[in-house]
Amino acid sequence: MSQLDALLGTWEPVIGLEVHVQLATKSKAFSPSAVKFGADPNSLTDPLVLGMPGTLPAFNRGALALALKLGVATGSKIRARARFARKHYFYPDLPKGYQISQYDEPLCEDGTLEIIHTGVVRKIKLQRIHLEEDAGKNMHVGAVSHVDLNRAGVPLVEVVSAPEMHGAEEAAEFMRSLHRLVRWLDISEADMEKGQMRCDANVSVRRRGEDRLGTRTELKNINSFKFVHHAIEHEIVRQIRQLERGERIVQETRLWDADAGTSQPMRSKETAEDYRYFPDPDLPPLVVDGGMMSGTLRGMPELPVARFDRYVRAGIQPDDARTLVGERALAEYFDETVKAHPGEQSGRVIANWILGELLGALNAASLGIDASPMPPSRMSELVKLVEDGTISGKIGKEVFEESFKTGEAPAAIVDRRGVQQISDEAALWEIIEEVVGANPHQVQGYQAGKDGLFGFFVGQVMKRTGGRANPVITSDLLHKRLGR
Amino acid sequence: MPALTRKEVEEIALLARLHLEPDELARMETELGAILEHFAALAEVPTDGIPPMTHAVPMDLRLRADEPAPSLPVGEALAAAPARQGDVFVVPAIIGGGE
Amino acid sequence: MTHWLSASETAAHIASGELTAASAVDALLGRIASVDGELGAFLAMDPRAHDAAAEIDRRRAAGEPQGPLAGVPIALKDNLVTRGVATTAASKMLDGWIPPYDATVVDKLRAAGAIIVGKLNCDEFAMGSSTENSAFKRTRNPWDAARVPGGSSGGSAAAVAAGLCAGALGTDTGGSIRQPAAFCGVVGLKPTYGRVSRWGAIAFASSLDQIGPLTRTVEDAALMLEVIAGLDPRDETSIDAPVPRYRDALTGDVAGLRVGIPHEYYEGAIDADVRGALERAKAVLVERGAEVVDITLPHTQHALPAYYIVAPAEASSNLARYDGIRFGHAATDAKSLQDRYMRSRAAFGTEVKRRIMLGTYALRSGYYEAYYKKAQQIRTLIKRDFDKAFQHVDVVLTPTTPTPAFAFGAKATPIEMYQADVFTLACNLAGLPGISVPCGLSGDGLPIGAQLLGKPLDEATILRTAHVIEKVLGIGHPKGLA
Asked: Residue A267 has what pLDDT?
């Protein structure tokens, strides 16, 4: 990447993203046909979805509610009267020959998406968020294509960013942030593999210091987070190389080929795409009233970046904070655990336990945080046992594993196994005397300068106490007894 | 409003996916041109600040409850399909054009 | 002669037991078989008609309650979707298409007990003013076989005029119910935009289309409107307003009714017989206490160009779904997708192609503002003209058409054909209700229609007024038809 870094000294990439997110409704945007992933082909259609003559659209209030959540969460201006528009083009997966979308009166405009990039919060402007319906699937099979219209009519929001990202990583972070946000708000499952979130990137470059934007290309077929980074970076390099050769960038649409690791220009189907937008005469204006707005605001949870800020202020490392807000269920788990175990340092300590032990155990068991066999109350109980010295950290990890596996309360495990930490100095001194007495050679060796032997003594004390000796006190007392 | 050129007629036919024979194209050029000329007078009518017509009885969009209804059985959905393979519609894969 | 009974009379006779539904339908089917070969009104018959009628008779005998159209034979313009019965919109594009669902109006007619006897010829996709654009057959005017029945609901008007059904449904986008009603001497009503659900009406121009009745009497039109009107959640443009008992409006009383006469509709090339008939209609109303008010509708001259931008634009959009992929005519041997589209859509007739081209042009980026948006603004001005006028009048009276029915092939250019609708278009642009009622015969014995336009949702007043005109000036059945 240093090659790219060198190029970036002269050239500045400018990136805008258009992201389509499938809304998690039960029925389609304009038809009451059900929404379901993976159903048998053409089993989720009705005459309207099939674009049959005489059918008319009726708009799904669930889709509006979800879109409003996103609008509010991004601080967008919500239009009081929005309109649907028809966008015309011919393609087999588009039954009516037009898509019901929004054009010059979209639902939301001028919002921002907060992303956490290089440890700080950046706000990326969103030009608009609008509602539209999805197309079906057109799959090439040799010389023919198979058309499945199950997905046709599923409600989408299209989120369009301003062209103000300047690198592939930033763009990838935008995607991750949007992904997190829509899942956070239960707007969408946003599984990229299921096609529930799709991204097109508009990429151009210009010489640093220039105001004017360069010619941009549109990149399509980016269907995973990994590809967002690769594809955009590849395009940036391609454009820079071309410009440095003195060639012009052709305004075109390019398809990302993940296997080849390159993009190819899409075969242009016609001279120019003229969508012939006009307001859909079958759909009167969409009114968003005060009641809907206040309902949406009331139901809004604390958002990821606000939580991130709060965690960082509470002393949690930014990287840890970012991981904790990666998923709403995780952040809520964290908050619940902290609530049950308040204290100045508790946030950091609890974060370590959750990010270290708990996530590790969950991953190994292929469980999500919402299926954690260890509820926040137990987690907090365990942390308390370690923090107040009842057990050592090392024992704490063992107790965690057992509690996670069996569901037994940590305190009960500690009692049953008798693994309470030994912090009583007198008792420890006695044991140290035994160890010293039993190992005169090593004592001699250590006092003669072999530092490495200190660990041996610690180990011996641990052995005699079944690992229960308080390591800090043990270490202290050993140093005293051994004289160094 | 500019007069309709032959090239425009061809472009419009392509946009509308209508195949017109040369004589049809010629006739279309004449007929559409004549119709459009007729409409030139509209440009003179002052309409600044006049909102476009929406509905005779002004109304807002009604919202449908998000409740799924039964879908058409697959057999019925495909009953009229001109070309099908099992439960999918079949079309050529090659985009083509200019043929 | 049961086939000349009005729908209301038929319903009453069946309800009272004087007539069985089965015999009425059978007689009608027999008549259709003997008359329609020449007339050409029907495209398809519904094979379930006799059994449906028999069921009505069974229910009547069992004392079960039935709807207001029980046993009444009704036919439907073939752009209204009927489950299990071929629906073609008179186009090769939909030749052989058997829909899997019914239009809302069909559901309502059946719920009211009506017997659907068949589907009626029209201009292809409702685009035309003479039914000459049907891809399948020619429909003749029952009053003069050398003349058109009008369009686009020509089959509906002809069938009703010739006694081949007790009533029919048509659609009206720029006059397609009213104009053929006038040409065929029957009553044709276009309701307020949104009064009747468009679910199941094959879309031509979404912001202009309305379904309405064609009947032999005004009372029948009121009855049928009662049955088909009302809110439909499946149609977002349908109005949520109560449906009154429109028949109650037929009081025969027009005392104090203010009748607007817009001078713009009485200028230009209007047949002398038409002028005369309208004068008589006006006189009838005045004799009965109505007041004539001269009004002006200054933007009338812009109605035709505005219509011929909005309607084709919306049509070009609504007809994009005909691509030969999920239904309809298809060139399945096409090797490329482009070819598949082009050759499948070659099934459209000339007028349809012409309007798609015009509409596509009007929506192109760069032209949208100057054409479609402009025309939509003109519509607002036209509506405002009417709003102003309706502050001083209750109905507007105009000729339905400038001339009686013209001969086949008489309109040599598209523009000449478009001008046949010049009096009916503004009503659709403004979304108002309009009715055509026969008010006389020309010197050649051809029907002439008077048009009444009303305030939004005020079908009652135009029905009341038409009812009075009909009582005095009704013209009866076509001569020479048994």
From this structure: 64
Answer whether residue A270 shows pLDDT above 80: no
Sign of CA dihedral C391, C397, C403, C408: positive
Q: Is residue A370 located within the same domain as residue A435?
A: no
| Of A237, A264, A296, the domain-final residue | A296
C99, C313, C317 ranked by CB distance to A52: nearest = C99
A209 and A190 co-located in one domain: yes
Please indicate, yes or no, whether residues A198 and A261 belong to a single structural domain of this protein.
yes
Our CA-based measurement puts residue C97 at a distance from the nearest CA of chain B, in whole angstroms, of 7
Residues A412 and A450 in one domain: no
Catalytic residue (choose from C153, C176, C316, C344): C176
What distance in Å separates the CA atoms of residue A39 and residue B68, rounded to the nearest whole number?
15
Tokens 């006779």 found at: C13
Query: Looking at the structure, do residues A119 and A211 belong to the same domain, yes or no?
Result: yes
Structurally, chain C folds into a number of domains equal to 1
3-state secondary structure chain C: CHHHCCHHHHHHHHHHCCCCHHHHHHHHHHHHHHHHHHHCCEEEECCCHHHHHHHHHHHHHCCCCCCCCCCCEEEEECCECCCCCCCCCCCHHHCCCCCCCCCHHHHHHHHCCCEEEEEECCCHHHCCCCCCCCCCCCCCECCECCECCCCCCHHHHHHHHCCCCCEEEEEECCCCCHHHHHHHCCEEEECCCCCECCCCECCCCCCCCEEEEEECCHHHHHHHHHHHECCCCCCCCCCCCCCCCHHHHCCCCCCCCEEEEEHHHHCCCCCHHHHHHHHHHHHHHHHCCCEEEEECCHHHHHHHHHHHHHHHHHHHHHHHHCCCCCCCCCCCCCCCHHHHHHHHHHHCCHHHHHHHHHHHHHHCCCCCHHHHHHHHHHHHHHHHHHHHHCCCCCEEEEECCCCCCCECCCCCCHHHHHHHHCCCHHHHHHCCCEEEEEEEECCCCCEEEEEEECCCCCHHHHHHHHHHHHHHHCCCCCCCCC
Which SS3 state, helix, strand or coil, does residue A137 take?
strand
Share of chain A above pLDDT 70, in %: 98
| ipTM of the modeled complex | 0.97
User: Which of A229, A264, A296 is the endpoint of a domain?
Assistant: A296
Residue range A413-458, pLDDT digits in tens: 999 988 888 889 999 999 999 999 999 998 989 988 888 889 999 9
Task: Name the DSSP class of A187.
Answer: S
- C176 among known catalytic residues: yes
Identify whether C195 is part of a domain.
yes
CATH assignment at residue A454:
1.10.10.410
Q: Is C388 annotated in the active site?
A: no
pLDDT tens by residue, A64-104: 999 999 999 999 999 999 999 999 999 999 999 999 999 99
C316 belongs to the catalytic site: no
Closest chain C residue to the Cα of B48, Cα to Cα: C377
CATH code assigned at C233: 3.90.1300.10
Q: Which residues of chain B fall short of a pLDDT of 50? A: 1, 98-99
Domain that holds residue C143: 2-249
Checking if the pLDDT of A129 tops 80, the result is yes
Residues B45, C302 contacting (CB under 8 angstroms)? yes
| DSSP SS3 for A483 | coil
Mutation pick from A25, A40, A146 vs chain B, by most beta carbons of B within 10 Å, is A146
What's the domain range around A318? 302-417
Phi and psi for A141 in degrees, rounded to 5? -135, 90
Same domain for A104 and A142: yes
Looking at the fold, whether A102 and A7 belong to one and the same domain comes out as yes
pLDDT tens-digit readout, A229-238: 999 999 999 9
